[in-house]
Design a protein that fits this description.
It is built from 20 helices and six strands. The chain has three domains: 118 residues, Orthogonal Bundle (Fumarase C, Chain B, domain 1), CATH 1.10.275; 215 residues, Fumarase C, Chain A, domain 2 (Up-down Bundle); 71 residues, Ribonucleotide Reductase Protein R1, domain 1. By secondary structure, the protein is mainly alpha-helical.
């Protein structure tokens, strides 16, 4: 993309962020969609030729097969522009691909007689739904899942690294029972893994069954063919799952499921970004300083957590699209309306905003190192968090009003270790138990946090 195109792009995806998303253009753009449609049309024609059920389309020679395969592999912007020129005349995007292929068949003596078997018995949505299925499969399996796994691996490594680094918790924004930094990261690792697994397990469906899903024209032309089995074999040969029950369109329920699951995952990532932003604000993390970077146009000292802020914003934009896609796409009037067509074209931006956010989070994580002094000082200044442990042990030994006594000592106020130790000494507890309680500190009072962080 030229500098001028970047400056005049309507969307920041094709402007400011274009270099970070260039890898998506070959699959999510208009060019990518046209290429996928052409691939589906050719594979359908090849499936007809490979079958003995259609004597009018004989088996293809190696040369003809190579010619067809090269139409897919050698597809370029020049080819896409020719198809767009045809579309300007036909005002029909899928028919333009068919006509382009017919022109190509004219250049091959072997294929020329069989050009009417391009798009044979197909409705446009037979081609489109498979093209989008292949697009989504690539988006999920080659881009989203690998980047998510990289993020999970990075966080898991940090969780293990900081498994025993004590940290003051905050519930309702107030000091609470200590945890470890590694355990808090492990919580997100587990959540990300769960949603990633669900995303990966969703079957990507497709259909190729004609104008309203009943093989009407197919059956008239070739009544002896088992069209259900033929269609199923074709769909599965493309690495997709077969949907036998559709109207003119594949109902997009699986796309809705993918979008909803991805939006759920993104929501968890927003939660993560806000937590990291908060920890940076508390100075638990130190951000790497880059001498040439500027944090504020007026405050020279600033190093802002821009990567996590950027990610949060882009995750929100992604979810706005994903939620709309998940609620809109399963709805189509009667046997088909066209509202899904313009909606589906925004799958690319939804994934682009998502992947842009994942990149930003990874960049943000690379800039962070822990501020151990601040973490330890924060713990030492909140001895009152040990009240939970003391009152729980008092309950074990059936002492009177344990909660209420600790509330009177600590509620809404900070205390020192000596104050707490004096309180413990006056309790009617076994000496060994008192010693165990006195040995506690906010730094050591982390339960199984370290073990949980190590095992994630």
């Amino acid at each position: 993309m030229s500098s001028d195109q970047g400056l005049t792009a309507l969307s920041p995806l094709d402007g400011r962020y274009a270099p970070k998303l260039a890898f998506l253009r070959k699959i999510c753009s208009e060019y990518g969609l046209i290429h996928l449609r052409l691939q589906v049309e050719i594979r359908w024609f090849q499936a007809l030729a490979q079958s003995t059920d259609f004597p009018e389309v004989p088996a293809l020679s190696p040369d003809a097969t190579q010619f067809l395969n090269q139409l897919v592999t050698d597809f370029d912007h020049k080819a896409a522009e020719k198809i767009k020129q045809i579309e300007q005349e036909t005002n029909h995007d899928v028919k333009a691909v068919e006509y382009y292929l017919k022109q190509a068949f004219q250049q091959n003596n072997e294929l020329k007689p069989y050009q009417e078997f391009i798009h044979f018995s197909c409705t446009s949505e037979d081609i489109n739904n498979i093209a989008y299925a292949l697009m989504l499969k690539t988006l999920r399996d080659e881009y989203t899942i690998p980047l998510l796994e990289k993020l999970i691996t990075t966080l898991r490594n940090r969780a293990h690294q900081f498994a025993s680094q004590s940290m003051l918790s905050r519930t309702h924004g107030q000091p609470a029972t200590p945890t470890t930094l590694g355990k808090e990261l492990a919580n997100f690792v587990y959540r990300f893994k769960l949603q990633g697994k669900r995303l990966q397990e969703i079957n990507i469906l497709a259909k190729c069954n004609g104008a309203v899903g009943n093989f009407n024209a197919h059956l008239v032309a070739y009544p002896e063919v088992d069209w259900i089995e033929f269609s199923k074999k074709f769909i599965t040969s493309l690495g997709l799952s077969y949907n036998p029950y559709t109207t003119q369109i594949e109902p997009h329920d699986y796309i809705a499921e993918i979008c909803y699951t991805l939006a759920h995952l993104n929501t968890i990532l927003i939660d993560f970004c806000r937590d990291m932003w908060g920890y940076i604000s508390l100075n638990y993390f130190i951000q790497t300083k880059k001498s040439d970077e500027i944090g504020s146009s007026t405050m020279p000292h600033k190093i802002n957590p821009i990567d996590f802020e950027n990610a949060e914003g882009n995750l929100g934009l992604a979810n706005a699209l994903l939620i709309h896609l998940s609620t809109k796409l399963p709805i189509s009037r009667w046997q088909r309306d066209l509202t899904d067509s313009t909606t589906l074209r925004n799958l690319g931006p939804a994934f682009a905003y998502t992947l842009l956010a994942y990149q930003a989070i990874l960049t943000g994580l690379e800039k962070l190192s822990i501020n151990q002094k601040v973490l330890e000082a924060d713990l030492k200044s909140h001895v009152e968090v040990l009240a939970e442990a003391v009152q729980t042990v008092m309950r074990k030994y059936n002492l009177e009003n344990p909660y209420e006594k600790l509330k009177a000592l600590t509620h809404g106020q900070t205390i020192t270790l000596s104050t707490l130790h004096q309180f413990i000494e006056e309790l009617s507890l076994p000496t060994k138990v008192k010693q165990q309680l006195i040995a506690l500190s906010p730094t050591s009072y982390t339960g199984l946090a370290s073990k949980l962080a190590q095992e994630v």
